[in-house]
Queue: 4 jobs
Job 1
Amino acid sequence: MKDKYDFDCACDLCTMDANRYTEIEKSRLRYKTIEEQIPKTTDPQKMGCLIKERFEMMEKGKLMHPGLVALHANDSFQLANGLGNYDEAKRYAKMAHDALSIKYGKDNPRSMLYKKYLENKITGNMLIQQLSSIKISI
């Protein structure tokens, strides 16, 4: 920062131990690689493993921003629901609900739809159908 912007940054990332910084950067690079692999993967089992690893790399790479979590949790929910893995679908739906509630509030239409699903008031397929009519932003 000093060389490029002529100031000393004191944020956690810039002042942390070099080994910890390297670990975070490696996780972010792996996250990027996974993001490139997922759309090219046709095997649902492999895709499921990549999705789980993506969340691990997000956490290790300090990328757990509510908008990004909501986006990936929504995609993961739809895949799990489509494959009939309803326990996994519930887990991702909860993750999406929590992230959407943090970012947009509990009264946000998407947050409320996920809540209905989590309370077993609508099915996973109904949730997907109703979500498709609501625009998402990050």
Note: The two ends are 27 Å apart (CA to CA).
Job 2
Amino acid sequence: MLKDSYHQRFGNLQVSLDILNALILKCNDNLNVFANNINFILLEILNLNDLLLSNHSLNVFNTFCQNLNNQLFIDDRSFLDNFLTLSNSFLNLYNQDNTPNKDYKEDDKNIIHWKIISINSANYLSNILSFNLNYAQL
């Protein structure tokens, strides 16, 4: 996947994201084992600043958020730090200075799409926050 990222083979990366999404769904009981890898992969995808790939990675982020458990947040400080970095990256997509084609006239349409990705990621994160707050009250 890193090789595909380096060479910007976006088609391969989309397939890799689909496989990662299926892996999360299929192996969600063992998500703790590879959660940091998911953080890393999604962050690498976002760093490519490609609108279509970022949108595609949002589906994986949603699945990831839906399957996270509180134990990861409590026991693994490294995961928490990496997840916060990933979450901030999703939330700040709309205001990044290096969005693709920033000098291009159609960029206004792209900015709207970047904002939609950020808003959707905030929605997915809010589900985790409410779950964790309920867990903390027990």
Note: The chain is about 80% helix and 0% strand.
Job 3
Amino acid sequence: MLPFETIIPYFVPVLFIIIASILGSIYYRSTKKASIEIGKKPLYTERCAGKVGKLYYKGPFIRVAIYDTFMVVSYLKQLVIHFDNIITVTEKKILLTKRLFITYRDKTETKTMYLVSYNPGKLKETLETAMKRQTPA
């Protein structure tokens, strides 16, 4: 058995490597594109924080891409939301951040996510403009 004094110098570097690997893995997985995105140019793309599903992602671990007929929210997996499934898009200021709440239909249930964007006005404007182009007059 190793004495306690020989383990201590290795503890911090090993812990750092483990945490960096986990964060790097989350970031890498958020860069992956959904199959529907391949070959298409997004109208707007941004990295942000937010809550999708039951998990809250801090920092730039969520990638949002808006296309002509759908949006993709990429985190540990890729969530494709077609504009006809979006119910509401609202912007709320909570404490010091502006959050963009998106309520959408996902198969059999209604879900809400929020995104903490660096430019929430631009994100909301681009999303609403793309959604209006989809809606017949």
Note: The chain has a mean pLDDT of 87.
Job 4
Amino acid sequence: MPYEFYIDRNVETVFIRHSGEMLLDEALDQIEEMLNSPLYIPGFNILRDTRSASLPAEWNYNWFREISPNRVGDKFLRLGRCHAAWGTNSGKDFRIAHQASISDRLSSSIIQRQAFTDISKALQWLDVPDDYKIIYPE
């Protein structure tokens, strides 16, 4: 599981960084670990940074729309009303992140999702202060 995350209660945001080859359910495993953390409060915003990761080949609009919901279960409901930003580093990965963000647009989802190629714009969208420094655990 090549990811790390930390929860900053001061900015009510969870910062997640993936690296290497992402596994098919890695993001869901990370969400479950986050939900079980005593530091996590439903409604915190989320920044998922995959700029240093290779996304699974299976991920596309159909996967997010048809297959993923069966794997997700109630995890997204347990996140509460929040913003979830997904940072990418290529047009191909941006397309995948965008497909994920629109896959449940016509549902009753309470999570607002958006894909970004510029992390500073993602942080701004999440209302994280401009001078905030992301420091992942070592």
Note: The helical segments are 26-35, 61-72, 75-79, 91-102, 119-125.
